[in-house]
């Protein structure tokens, strides 16, 4: 279940789109992704992702590939670059 930590009946996809987009990208199945694209549209999903503070690197690469955008355009990438760690994880 994608939303194990919230009461899904109390959530609103229009009020919290970034929560839904990030959760589906990082933990969802292909069918979940299709529901998301049908609901928000690819352009809105890309815009939401550009403003996320964190996003799994694989998910970021996928969004860049399907939208023909650069990683540097995404807030999560810029934040990661400005906060380097001692070890690659």
Number of strands: 0
- How many distinct folded domains? 1
Tertiary shape: globular
- Measured between the Cα atoms of the first and last residue, the distance is 26 Å
**Rg calculated over all Cα atoms:** 14 Å
Mean pLDDT: 89
Structure annotation, total helices:
5
Strand content: under 5%
What can you tell me about this protein's structure?
It is built from five helices and no strands. The chain has helices at residues 17-27, 30-40, 42-50, 57-67, 75-82. Helix 1 packs antiparallel against helix 2 (30-40). The longest helix is centred in the N-terminal third of the chain and has 11 residues, at 17-27. Residues 2-48 form the DUF6922 domain. It holds the Pfam family DUF6922. This is DUF6922 domain-containing protein.
What layout of secondary structure does this protein have?
Elements: H1 17-27, H2 30-40, H3 42-50, H4 57-67, H5 75-82
Protein name: DUF6922 domain-containing protein
InterPro entries: DUF6922
Organism: Leyella stercorea DSM 18206
Give me a quick take on this structure:
56% of the residues lie in helices and 0% in strands. It has 89 residues and is mostly helical.
């Amino acid at each position: 279940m994608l939303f194990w930590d919230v009461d899904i009946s109390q959530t609103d996809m229009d009020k919290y789109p970034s929560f839904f987009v990030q959760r589906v990208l990082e933990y969802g199945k292909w069918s979940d992704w299709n529901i998301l694209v049908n609901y928000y549209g690819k352009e809105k999903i890309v815009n939401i992702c550009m403003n996320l503070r964190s996003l799994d690197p694989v998910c970021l690469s996928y969004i860049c590939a399907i939208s023909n955008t650069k990683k540097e355009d995404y807030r999560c990438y810029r934040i990661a670059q400005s906060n380097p760690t001692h070890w690659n994880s």
